[in-house]
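Q: Hi! First time doing this. I have a protein sequence and I read that you can turn it into a structure. Is that right? Here it is:
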Amino acid sequence: MHTLLTWLGTKDLENMLVEAHAAISTIALKSTIPFDKIVILSNKDEDKWNQFERFLQKRMAIANRPNQDIQVYKAHIDSPIDYQSISKVADQWISKLSDEADTLSINLTSGTPTMTTLSVLIGKGKSNTRFLQSTPKNEVIDVDIPLDFAHAYAQSASKGIAAKATSEPSLYRAFDQLTSHSDAMKTAIKKAQKIAASEVPTLILGETGTGKELMANAIHQGSLRAQKSLRIVNCGALAENIVDSILFGHKKGAFTGADKDHPGLFEQADGGTLFLDEVGELPLNVQVKLLRALQQGEVTRLGDTKSINVDVRIIAATHQDLSALVAQGKFREDLFYRLAVGIIDMPSLNQRKADIPYIVEQLAEQINLAGAKHPSYKSKNISDKAINFICTQSWPGNIRELWSTLNRAFLWSDNRVVDEKDIADSMINIQKSKPDHKITMSIHDKVDIVQITDDIQKKYVIAALKASGNVKKQATKILGLKDHQTLTNWMKRLNITID
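A: Yes, that's right. Below is the predicted 3D structure, encoded as structure tokens:
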């Protein structure tokens, strides 16, 4: 396939009105290679786009050249001379069309000098691009640009790299707010820092309450997109009948109540990052559109026929096992592999024991800061014993559960220092249902039932002692034993010792 990419120039429109040729029609008609597809970019005069498409289609049909795939697309640029926004649009289209076509021809005549300059700079990086110009006499010139921009840039960049190598490495300030004294968290942040510097889609995995949104924000702030928008959406909180509109937008009249055009989150995050929390909750039909947006960099608003190009980095997160959902047919395999390029496993609080004292201090500071707004509130501290007690607990809800528990403890306690009893009294006991594991045996099977039950008892006794801080009286209550002497006898029988 042979494709022509061009900006829509003022002269092209003016000549169209008098049925005369300008750069686009001249190149389309006189190029030695007929074009199967013509992509025209513009940011103004939208009311004339359809007329120009018909004008060009008619000219191509008369010349017996392909004319079915000619379309003007909206270019989201700040102004005709804004290098940053034009660069983004040009890069999107040149990369997309170069991948699709055998040859990509770029018109250098139509558009502003900024558009031409960036088309050359970006187009020279593709092996199958060629550049065309038209003269005032409607002649076509095949432009040879001998300069190797990549080589010239590499020479300049190498000097900068050499100079920087002798200086101190810069700190990843975006990750400063993530507490990382534990080895598990240090590993996660090290991976995230590398991912932040790239443009790859990222999947953050971890239990509920482990701080996946904080990590996503740090990755965005540590990336080249930090100055652009970060949009956040909880996919699990979206009603299925509106998720399409929220993500991809809708046109006026697309459904009852759609009284105006609405840009979706992909458009709102253009140039920046879109964080899809609980991505495993997305319906399969929406997963198809999400995959298309990732693969082609374009979305279609609900009720519209034209696609909109977007440049969005996706960070997704879930507490679910996506590979299991794929096996069950509830999550698309191709989407899973598209998202799971940069993978970060957020450690549970139970894996971050070294971080807990610092996290507790930070949360306590936040609670006191919020409470200071109320005249009757008295600022409180948390005792070392309370922090040690917190470190012994499992916290299945992770930081979110710890935050709620501390809020209750600070609220209920009348003392200026919150102790371990205040924490224990503020913890919520959630009864977890026990799975019914049906056991089947054959006539020739042999098991050591005593050893099996001893192993189970030992695990529960150790867990109870850990949760109680090795206080036998508390551990006895947790296990439902009648007295602590019974627990002592069990410990002897099971060969359990404590400090």
